[in-house]
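User: I'll paste a sequence; please echo it back and then give the predicted structure.

Assistant: Echoing your sequence first, then the prediction.
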Amino acid sequence: MENHVAGISIVLIDDHKLFREGIKRILEMEPDMRVVGEGADGEDAVRLAEQCSPDVILMDINMPNVNGVSATESVMEASPRSRIIILSIHDDEGYVYRTLRSGASGYLLKEMEADDLVEAVRVVANGGAYIHPKVTGKLIEEFRRLSDQEEKSDRPFYMDGGQNGSDKVIESLTRREREVLQLMAEGKSNRVIGESLFISEKTVKNHVSSILQKLDVQDRTQAVVISIKNGWVKLS
């Protein structure tokens, strides 16, 4: 039965109850967020997805019985409207890529700050994707490697939003937006970008929104993928 809790409804899946309680406390401090279910493994995730049809499911990647990666596809079938954020201790790009290919919309490291957690839930609930800044660079390298492989076989991995008139696309960005885009590609959070450029975090968010609109993409990860493939930014 679908749960009609106002705001963003969330299900937490993690076999460590203490960690789960900590996440719950952080989320329920936000007036627009409610935890509507909790579980310890992938089987619980599927059951709660069917029962609650939550907006967001926060799910650990390493759990007994059925892990997060294996459970993602089943959860998506049980509740197509729900969006999944994977929680992990692993910053390996292979883990990130597999979870995204399975249908997850986000990947967070458990060392995240509380503000990052809240931002990720809001972004994903609103239809975007959120990747922990620490692993963004590694993920992009994996995307690029797979893209190169599939392009050689004439099967493009990612339909490049800048492929038609790419020069005009990048030229539409202001100097400041290009600086923000470069720092996004380096995996910097909005707060760190603001500190690096001596501007407020709110101003950074405005620049990011403008970049996404001009590149005609839905989220930061897509913007960075397109930018790297077109040579608009460089990874060290």
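The longest helix spans residues 133-152. The mean pLDDT is 81.
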